[in-house]
Amino acid sequence: MLSARLLRRQLLSSARRPPAALRQLHAAPKEKLFDKILVANRGEIAVRVMRTCKKLGIKTVAVYSEPDVNSVAVRMADEAVCVGPAPSSQSYLSIPKIVEAVKATGAQAVHPGYGFLSENKDFCEALEAIGVAFIGPGHEAIQAMGDKIESKQLAMDAGVNTIPGFLGEIDTPDEAVKVAQEIGYPVMIKASAGGGGKGMRVAYNDEEVRMGYRLSKEEAASSFGDDRMFLEKFIEDPRHIEIQLIADSHGNVVALPERECSIQRRNQKVIEEAPSVLLDPETRLAMGKQAAMLARKVGYVSAGTVEFLCDKHKNFYFLEMNTRLQVEHPVTELISKVDLVEQMIRVAAGHELPKELVEGPVKIHGWAMESRVYAEDPLRGFLPSIGRLLQYEEPAHLPGVRVDSGVNEGSDISMFYDPMISKLITYGKDRSECLARMKTALDNYVIRGPGNNVAFLQDVYRHPRFVSGKITTKFIEEEYPDGFDGVKLTAPEVEDLRVVGTIMHLKKTRASSQISGRIQSTPAEGFGSFDSLNGDELEFVSDQAGVVPRLRAIAPGLSSQELIALAEHNDLKNLGAQLSVSIDGPFGESKPVVVVEIEVENKRHRTETVTLALVDNKWHVVGNVDWSLNGPLFKASYAKQDGAADQPLASQMLQTLPEGFRLQFHGAVHDVVVRNELEAAYGKHMQPKPEVDTSNLLLCPMPGMLISVAVEVGQYVELGQELAVVEAMKMQNVLRSEKRGVIKSIGRAAGDSLKVDEVILDESAVYKLHTDSSCSSSPTIIGFQESPPPSCSAITTCSSVNIDGEKLYWDRACASDTYDDLSAAAYGEKPYVLMEIYESGQECKKLLSGAAFLADGSCLVTDNGASSMKVSLYADGSATFLTYRGTSCSGTVVKSTKVTKASISSHSCENGALKFYSGSATTATTATTTDGSDKTISTTTSQSPCSFESSVHLTVAITATLALATTLY
């Protein structure tokens, strides 16, 4: 039921002012608009729409689900209405509840934002039925463009370039395979009602089509309530470029400059920029013209986006049209100086677009980039993360930076909605300046609580290929084929990190000394004066706490490079404090750092302390340090001994360690430990703590619902095999095995709700022993072994075989007794025998080719009972005989004999005797040995003698059969 209580809220003082870039856009004309607008959305887009409404003097109404009661959007709105519980289907997607909220508040118009009901024709019609304006296109255009099959046909009719494909609806996986084969691989499987990267899969073969069809269909049904599917040719290595349109009801259609959205992961946009590096003016004009042709074809009104795929030759093809405001609209606003939300409101009120837009062309002003900051874990396959924002500081104060968000410190990122935290947008006069500002903004963006993708974004922006602009939609797939494993700092950046950790250590140590009253700064005796290079003196100041030597400059206004020259001239490296700084904890790489401090007078005629640190014989100068003890963000100005000007420096402290800090620097996380020389010497004798091994467990990487489990207890699984499917944020995520293994246990069932790191199943890593693959197209698996037993060096415990180039092991105690059955399954009616042994009065035991263990593990006893023997035969053709005193095959090994493959090529058993086939001998030979105490061998031979010796009484027959040997090995 709709809450009858309307929450009237005044805009809190904490609400952020509109970004400067938007304040420069077209001022709202003095014309009749709406008195009150309901924003049918949540999060950052709701806040974004309300900002423009506030600028235009329009009151706003927020709708919210129960978990969003304290959201920024609710506090910002003039009124707020609860529309239901957390699930979107019962709140933000409930047309009756939204319509009731409109009626109850008297709103004259509704802005849908993006997502949810923004492209729902039924919602549009419901508002039209009660005389309320929908700030967006009419329901006819929504319906036409929302159906991907129909929209493609309309684009073709309008003369827009389209991708070859099958326009009909595909009902079964088999039909999908047939169509894919006709079109030619690769193909794109798409949901007709899809969008936002959902319900889409690329397939390169029949098997991928079947799986992709199933997953996309399920995803589409869950996300859109419409599981119709179609296929089209997948354009390889394309760029995703789109044209922003704005059209009014007076026949005016304006195409704004393009934006590029090629940096995508799983068809979900990650980074956008405007304009595109690829396009020239002619291509830009042609794309805008075709986009406008399509808009006119469907009678489009309001803001919309026509998306194209563009190849390296600048050929472009229609992808789809989004009948709403796009997530990435800010980059277009910044380079065109058009407030798109304002124009949507004006158009919905019946006004014409501004004359300067209609007469065009719209000029491009500078460059803009947008980063989608998500609550997800890039190190775990970008799986969604949830939780409370424990610390949250946006870098909106930096020049050229805009942050669109709907959260603040204390906000919860819920499993029920899209995991986007914010959109970080930067603007510059050109791409280079824009990119530099983005890197700085990301360095200064503090997010604690749920996992986030800031480090991954920083890594992308550092990538040479991105910097050069040579990107495609496969950029992430190609540059991160094995996923993201963290930012790798360059050697100079590691030096910078050592300096940051050193300065933080000094500040912390000095603060502790001040608290204890142990610190004083007084002129020191015995050091004399220092030459400042300009005739003035430098006074040496001694810290009683012994933190670090300090100089006081008499002459003010020394630049960073002048300070470095001063340090070199006075040989300060022999005066400074000697520290040892380790990266990656006390057991990481350690380097000496020499530190001195100089008190100088800055431009404001105030005294500040500048730190000089010598790392790898290079001075680094750090000033203007802004860091509160244990605060999350360290900021400073920075210069190196290379003549460059001062640069901003930022690092984030994630955790205080006993001897240092865990820092995030340019996205890379490292433990920095700072010690004096004595502490470093003692630290070398410490041992690291062992880590808990969870490698055998399949842990849920995100909160969500377990949709299916694809394996059973006891089942062997290969590397990459599907284990389970977890749904989160309406996306189905397939969890695959990261190794060969056997399923030991399954702890959860389909339909269960899962938390992060909750155990789904236990998969033990195993080695697989199987039959010789040369003898069968489907080798029979004869057993599994988790790991080589500790005593594998003793043949009595285990044996080994070579399978697929690996040394694999088998525990004899687990050996199956059904060797004949296994043999028959692998080789049909003529099993090949690898080895047979005997004991007086006992039948021969048969071992299957490829197995490497003693038949049933029995102990062979000599005829006289004085000794016993175990025999191990390896699949590489070698054998080992171990002889023991006594009859139990235990205790001291009195003799160990190894027989090489060169001596034994094949084996057989005849008349109850162990036989080895070897060499080219054609006549049987008998060899007799004495017991173990004698260690001698007597041989009778007709052609070639036995090439091994044993201390057990047995008979050996040697005969030639090279063909069999070839089969066995």
Give a brief description.
With 969 residues, the protein is of the alpha+beta class. Helix 5 runs antiparallel to helix 6, helix 8 (173-183) crosses helix 9 (206-224) and helix 14 packs antiparallel against helix 15 (454-462). The longest helix has 26 residues, at 491-516.
Describe the structure in your own words:
This protein is an alpha+beta fold. The chain has six domains: 129 residues, Rossmann fold, CATH 3.40.50.20; 71 residues, ATP-grasp fold, A domain (Dna Ligase, domain 1); 243 residues, ATP-grasp fold, B domain (D-amino Acid Aminotransferase, Chain A, domain 1); 193 residues, no CATH class; 69 residues, Beta Barrel (OB fold (Dihydrolipoamide Acetyltransferase, E2P)), CATH 2.40.50; 182 residues, no CATH class. The chain is built from 22 helices and 60 strands. A hairpin with a 2-residue loop joins strand 41 and strand 42. Helix 5 runs antiparallel to helix 6 and helix 14 packs antiparallel against helix 15. The longest helix is centred in the middle third of the chain and has 26 residues. The protein is globular. The chain starts with 6 loop residues before the first strand and ends with a helix.
